[in-house]
Amino acid sequence: MTGYGRVSHPFKDKTIHVELRSLNSKYTDIRVKIPQNYREKEHALRKIISDRVHRGKIEVAIEVASDSGAEEFGLNEALFRKYHQELNRLSTELNIPDGDMLQAILRLPSVVSTSADNIDDQEWKAVLEGLDLAIEKFTGFRTAEGNAMKADLQMRVTRIMDLLSQLNPEEEERVTKLRQRMRQSLEEHLGKDKVDDSRFEQEILFYLEKIDITEEKVRLEQHCKYFIEELNKEQPLKGRKLSFISQEMGREINTMGAKAYSSNIQKLVVEMKDELEKIKEQVANTV
């Protein structure tokens, strides 16, 4: 599921900006972007987020801005001179125009760095407060999206059950038409007087048994009820179970389609498949 939460938390003469965003993923993948002096706390941040945010490609960004706008920076002069010396030598040897070498060197790692001290306990506490608020907003975003998704899934499963109930009259009509068509075909090829009614009824029963979809209808209805039951449970991480149930629903629908031998039943089966595909798309985005 997607999610988003952003908080700006004041601390002394600074503002700590915490942002969480996520995209759907089968696994939990956390990417952290934090100031250099926060690196010692990265493991703790990952632990907090993984405990409270389930599954997804999660991006966490923490920025610290000075309210006065006066950030302190340092220039590593020795490293700058070394880079300049080596680049200048290569430029001369290879006859390559040096271009804007100054800007290029300033972008290299460790040439420019902030002079911020290591994070103290008070600032870390402020970061955790900001992170907690951001996770609350993030969770609220996901909850709202999840409720909308839940309503959509329930509507589509109910639609499949409605289509299933429409099969009964079509199935009865199918039996009547098949019986008439087979009787007519036999009489045309053998003659009406040569048709053994008893044998004909036996063959009809055997044929109808092979294309009977009663068991598939019963199982599909059970799967639909089970899906809604699991959907309404107050627990996280239900997407995998819903995915398994939807696969079983698809198996029964496909079998009914293979046994249909009726254009009207096939139309109902196609509509069921359409709803099921939309269900599978939604379930793939749930946690």
Number of individual domains = 3
What structural class results from the helix and strand content? alpha+beta
Largest sheet descriptor: 4 strands, mixed
**Helix residue percentage:** 55-70%
Q: Termini distance? A: 7 Å
Strand order of the largest sheet: 1-2-4-3
Low-confidence stretches: none
Can you give the mean pLDDT? 83
Determine the oligomeric state from the structure. Answer: single chain
Count of DSSP-assigned helices? 9
Q: What is the gyration radius calculated from CA atoms? A: 34 Å
The tally of strands reads 6
| Element pattern in H and E | EEEHEEHHEHHHHHH
Shape: elongated
Beta-strand percent range: 5-15%
Short description:
The protein is 61% helix and 15% strand. The chain contains nine helices and six strands, in the order E-E-E-H-E-E-H-H-E-H-H-H-H-H-H. The termini are close together.
Would you give an account of this structure?
It is a single chain. The termini are close together. The protein has three domains: 1-71, no CATH class; 73-112, no CATH class; 142-283. The protein contains nine helices and six strands, in the order E-E-E-H-E-E-H-H-E-H-H-H-H-H-H. Helix 1 (42-52) links the parallel strand 3 and strand 4. The longest helix is centred in the middle third of the chain and has 45 residues, at 121-165. The model has no long low-confidence stretch (mean pLDDT 83). The protein is an alpha+beta fold.
For this entry, give a set of tags:
two-stranded antiparallel sheet, 15% strand, 6 strands, four-stranded mixed sheet, 3 domains, 287 residues, alpha+beta
